[in-house]
């Protein structure tokens, strides 16, 4: 145990004392805060400059639909150069009108043009072309205006008063979603989803960063021949265990600092948003986090990190150069990428069959199951079975990696084949 503690202490202090660790730990929350706040800030500033009304509507429906759309876009009548311009044409001259509108857009006199024809009335189909066609927010505004205009036109045909139709079709709904667990109300559903995604993203980042940190550390010790000196006084199993535990402790420390910083950011969110000139952040309550959930999250991190750290350490022991390490680590990295790819589908539907299956797979469970646990109440037997599966897979990976590490740490030259790796496992 004394030798194991010495290795753990060395790996921990060697990384904690570096300037990069201090910089990333201190400024990491600032960076994540910026990437979360800055896009929202730029979106708010950008929406002030949106000129959706500065388009041309080519109306070939003969029903006045173009004027209705223009009204909902905030533009003026036909001929208002600063607003929406409605051009009523015959169906036979629609192609000519589109060509003229295309030239106007090319000459920057208009941002784009919307075409309304018989298909718009019969099948609710329309087409838009313009310089802002890639702006999702502006296209959504145009679609909403067209939808509202079509709905109002249909209601007027049923005999409703136009003013009454306008009042009925302009409805904005503000719905609050609250989560209910086995123990009762569990706080904001949106807050739970955001919390779960943050936890899954942090687990993924920690596993990737510190797993590859172990790979680089093993490769550096091997290429500099330091490993030959170390294994003369410490067994390879103790060296591998100490390296994994020491680096994992660094990851836990960094996560604790980041979570504390995140709590501070949430506490002072109103002052931060006001100082940036942004609307106040919605005051939704934080989700309730039971102690058992915290314990499960820590266990998933430890087991998931141990699983991937052992695999990265084995990869580092198998190769002798950084180029070979990058290629050999691709299968391990792809397992991690497989996990994060399903994060969004699981967050959108945490009760679906896809979410259940992906959260049961040992290689993706350390990332996906915490996401599901934060969004819904997972049965205790399912949680226990998943933890047991991850623990068994972790033990198997550590067992295999220890045997590869024992032989490969002192092997140099070309990268071994799979047959040679299998022989290492059998003979060690």
Summarize the model shown:
This protein has about 425 residues and is an alpha/beta fold. The protein contains 19 helices and 6 strands.
Description:
This protein has 428 residues and is α/β, with parallel strands linked by helices. It has 2 domains: 2-36 and 188-427, no CATH class; 56-169, no CATH class. It is built from 19 helices and 6 strands. The strands form 2 sheets. A 4-stranded mixed sheet has the order 2-1-3-4, with helices on both faces. A two-stranded antiparallel sheet has the order 5-6. β5 and β6 form a beta hairpin. The two termini are 22 Å apart. The model is unreliable at 76-82 (pLDDT under 50).
The protein's oligomeric status is single chain
Strand order in space, largest sheet: 2-1-3-4
Which structural class should the secondary elements be placed in? Answer: alpha/beta
Average pLDDT across residues? Answer: 76
Order of helices and strands: HHEHEHEHEHHEEHHHHHHHHHHHH
Total number of beta strands: 6
Radius of gyration from the alpha-carbon trace, in angstroms: 30 Å
Count of discrete structural domains? 2
Poorly predicted runs are 76-82
Major beta sheet summary: 4 strands, mixed
**Helix share, percent:** 55-70%
Q: Report the span from N to C terminus.
A: 22 Å
- What is the number of helices? 19
Percent in strands = 5-15%
Protein topology:
Layout: H1 2-16, H2 19-47, E1 56-59, H3 65-73, E2 85-88, H4 94-106, E3 112-116, H5 118-122, E4 127-130, H6 136-157, H7 162-169, E5 178-181, E6 184-188, H8 189-223, H9 226-230, H10 236-267, H11 269-275, H12 291-318, H13 322-328, H14 330-341, H15 343-348, H16 353-360, H17 365-375, H18 380-408, H19 418-427
Parallel strand pairs: 1-2, 1-3
Antiparallel strand pairs: 3-4, 5-6
């Amino acid at each position: 145990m004394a030798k194991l503690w010495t290795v753990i202490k060395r790996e921990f202090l060697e990384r904690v004392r570096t300037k990069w660790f201090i910089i990333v730990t201190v400024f990491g929350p600032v960076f994540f805060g910026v990437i979360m706040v800055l896009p929202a800030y730029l979106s708010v500033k950008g929406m002030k400059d949106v000129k959706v009304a500065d388009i041309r509507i080519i109306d070939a429906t003969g029903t006045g639909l173009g004027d209705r759309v223009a009204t909902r876009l905030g533009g003026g009548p036909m001929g208002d150069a600063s607003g929406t311009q409605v051009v009523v044409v015959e169906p036979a001259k629609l192609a000519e009108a589109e060509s003229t509108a295309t030239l106007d857009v090319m000459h920057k006199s208009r941002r784009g043009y919307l075409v309304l024809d018989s298909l718009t009335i019969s099948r609710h189909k329309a087409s838009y072309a313009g310089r802002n066609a890639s702006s999702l927010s502006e296209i959504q505004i145009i679609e909403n205006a067209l939808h509202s205009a079509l709905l109002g036109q249909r209601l007027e045909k049923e005999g409703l008063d136009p003013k009454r139709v306008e009042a009925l079709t302009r409805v904005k709904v503000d719905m609050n979603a609250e989560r209910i667990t086995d123990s009762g109300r569990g706080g904001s559903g949106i807050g739970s989803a955001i919390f779960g995604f943050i936890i899954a993203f942090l687990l993924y980042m920690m596993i990737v960063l510190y797993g590859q940190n172990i790979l680089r550390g093993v490769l550096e010790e091997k290429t500099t021949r330091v490993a030959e000196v170390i294994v003369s006084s410490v067994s390879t199993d103790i060296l591998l265990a100490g390296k994994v535990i020491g680096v994992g402790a660094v990851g836990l420390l960094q996560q604790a600092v980041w979570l504390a910083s995140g709590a501070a950011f949430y506490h002072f969110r109103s002052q931060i948003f006001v100082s940036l000139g942004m609307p106040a952040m919605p005051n939704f309550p934080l989700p309730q986090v039971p102690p058992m959930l915290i314990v499960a999250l820590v266990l998933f991190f430890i087991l998931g990190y141990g699983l991937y750290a052992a695999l990265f350490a084995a990869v580092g022991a198998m190769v002798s150069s950084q180029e070979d390490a990058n290629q050999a680590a691709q299968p391990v990295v792809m397992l991690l990428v497989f996990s994060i790819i399903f994060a969004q589908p699981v967050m959108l539907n945490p009760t679906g069959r896809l979410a259940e299956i992906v959260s049961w797979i040992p290689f993706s469970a350390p990332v996906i199951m915490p996401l599901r646990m934060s969004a819904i109440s997972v049965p205790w037997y399912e949680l226990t079975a998943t933890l047991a599966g991850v623990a068994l897979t972790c033990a198997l990976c550590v067992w295999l990696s220890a045997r590869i590490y024992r032989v490969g740490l002192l092997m140099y030259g070309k990268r071994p084949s799979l047959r040679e790796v299998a022989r290492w496992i059998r003979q060690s």
